[in-house]
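Chain entry —
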Amino acid sequence: MVPVPRPVRRGHEVGFITALRLSFYPDVDFGFQGGLKRLDYPDAGLNALRLGADFKVAAARVRSGSPVDLAFGAGLGVDTGDNLSVLTMGPNAIASRAYPAGTSGVIEPYASLGLAYASINTATKDDTGIQWPFRLGAEYRFSPDLRFMMEVREAWGVHYGDQGAFSIGTTFGF
């Protein structure tokens, strides 16, 4: 008799996040993120508060002759809830290029690779190590004050929850 492996039960996360991006100097910006999420996994059903901050500096621009816009930055993220504490921090690189779409729109595909320190403490897991988050997405700018984005994320290494994620969102100017 050959043992049949049991299927891996994966859960899901649903949440809402808001962000504020600021820039006081050309080619340098920083941001703050905050939100709530619900994690439904086989070992836990949790509510969590997510807070984060990041900055990035443009290293190359298409308008200066580079084939892509290239930026380097770093981020810090904290997820906290009942029996849940996740800290991630580290540098990342982002490459993108904007293309005209229609009369006033712009579509900007991007890719990002990071190297993050991750510390995870839950009721069933206590782990610290390195995480390699990779993001691939696109942002469509209808106007300077209205943007739509779509992103796929994959994380290798130490993580809690799903390795992959799919996100959609909008940005409104104020």
